[in-house]
Design a protein that fits this description.
By secondary structure, the protein is mostly beta strands. The protein has strands spanning 2-6, 12-20, 26-30, 33-39. Helices cover 0% and strands 57% of the residues. It is globular.
């Protein structure tokens, strides 16, 4: 599954989910690198 996470105040990364941490953060892999951050909420149509 592909997810988008934020790893800073304005930096986002999109990659394949490789794990989830107890504090709500998600780990995603992009090529050979793994990033950890908070998942971006899905946009909702009104």
């Amino acid at each position: 599954m592909i997810r988008t996470i934020t790893i800073g105040s304005c930096v986002s990364v999109q990659g394949v989910v490789v794990g989830q941490l107890a504090d709500g953060k998600v780990m995603v892999r992009v090529d050979e690198k793994t990033f950890v951050g908070y998942p971006v909420q899905a946009a909702r149509a009104s």
